[in-house]
Amino acid sequence: MEKIKITFPDGSVKEFDNGATGYQIAESISQRLAQDALAVEVDGNVKDIRVPINNNSSVKFLTFNDDKGKEVYWHSTSHLMAHAIQELHPEAKFGVGPAIESGFYYDIDIDTQLTESDLAVIEKKMEEISKQDNPFVRQDLPKSEAVSFFKEKGDNYKLEILSEINEDHEDISIYKEGNFIDLCRGPHLPSTGKIKYIKLMNISGSYWRGDEHNKQLQRIYGISFPKKKMLDEYLLKLEEAKKRDHRKLGKELEIFLITPAVGTGLPIWLPKGTILRETLENYLREEQRKRGYLPVITPHIGNINLYKTSGHYPYYKESQFPPLKLEEGKEEYLLKPMNCPHHFQIYLSKPRSYRDLPIRYAEFGTVYRYEQSGELNGLTRVRSFAVDDSHIFVRQDQLKDEVCNVIELIQVVFDQMGFKDFETQLSFRDDNLEKYGGDISLWDKAQKELVEAADKMKLKYVIKDGEAAFYGPKIDFMVKDALGRRWQLGTVQIDYVMPERFNLEFTGSDGQKHRPVVIHRAPFGSMERFIGVLIEHFAGEFPLWLAPVQCAVLPISQNYFEYAKLVNAELLKKKIRTEFDDRNEKVGFKIRDWETKKVKYMVILGDKEEKANNISVRQHKTGDLGSLSLDEFVSKLQNEIKNKI
Ligand SMILES: [Zn+2]
Ligand SMILES: [Zn+2]
Q1: Fewer CB within 10 Å: N-end or C-end of the chain?
Q2: 297 CA distance to ligand 2 centroid (A)?
């Protein structure tokens, strides 16, 4: 029999019979691997584990530990759910059912409006089908056959999807599992029995293809795991995430307010939130000052012509508030969707020489976007937000070093916030050159230099072709918070298009005019989003240097108010952010209350303290720290604040 050579991830090569399946190959390694393997990656393409392999190939087995393995697992569970729904509601029609970052969903069209209590019934049915251990069987077929099958089934949604597939370019396949058949590219698990622990999370409405003119389908979200322990851990994490929800904590800790009286998606910073935000801004300002950034301030609106030049208007019209028209005449203004064009005007305000570059303008600049109201979410999706923006004008030969400088700043900032684990994506162009502006040879050079910069700065990165902005390649930073959730925060973007559109120039050493390259960058991304993430990351228990209230002063009765006032005044004088609790309440009640406010230190004052001219200190979650002199306490706090512990 003809043999094929299979190369494994560790580089080892083994021979197998031509037509051996992934499962057989896994089995030859170990029974355990054959059991755990959910799918197989053959030369980079994920396939069903039972598909025969007919060529020399590189093979990697995917288990639940791999992201791609999870994807197969969760997508297969979405079929299982659709199957269960078909059993319970035979009239059901199905939209799409993909895997998502955590779990899966399926959009369904049935006559009954489902409620949360129906989910348990569906779950039970799913468990039944899982136990049948039906194999997922793939069948490739001509388009006409697929069309007549779904016509007979009366499934218009699948017919609509089919009508858009060009069979010359794409194989058409269906997957059968028990008596449930779905139009699907796969890949899938070998059988339903692999799906062990299932939890359906919730139901929401979803317009077919996201278009509100179409029928609203019911979208059911769920998740599944091969081990009970994994499901339990996931649910526990979800519970913890709920407790940390920045919308809930933002209200309890008086950080921000969003009220329809002002407008949806327009956050208002309350005093405590403002202190938090200003502390972060000042921290970044100081780091930027050390690195040669120059502060600027620009207006919240700009002449519409500025945005016609940049191309933001009319191309991004949909995501902007409509222009403000002056009564008198023709002038129109736009709430600024971006800070860039304003900063370009500063660059243009005088002639620039090659010796002046890099020039780094920085501003916490508020921008306005008209997000759909359904998309708005606390501080993380809003209609007005401040970007910790900077535009850096560099010569092409300075680009790489400057990108390294920016990466270094972002690393310092993330490290300070306790985001120890972050990944980056280098978003590059693809071969569809029409999509991109500027000189393509410069792009290639920039992409090469971005990789060099990323390597030099020891970034963990993936390269994604085709995800660049139209004006240049970029680096996006994804952080993992304390619960392991991923957030996209900082960004560094190279721009070859705006310098042309705004005719930015400098005089080179050759006396000729040259174009600078622009770097747009924001370590936080936006103050709103960053603080939303930070609240959840710290669960509202901010490190002392960031905490809006660092200390509360609690006299145990009115008899000690005078002494407590003196202590409080002394703390304020030493720049400790303190609050004086003069409520006529028992000290036990006050302590419990300040615990819920997550304030780190409480100064308790009574007879003993007044006589000894000292203070008693309690620490949040830790308890009694004993008696200290006020000076000792102040220097302890100052030390913590200074070192940002
Ligand atoms: Zn599928
Ligand atoms: Zn910009």
Answers
A1: N
A2: 14
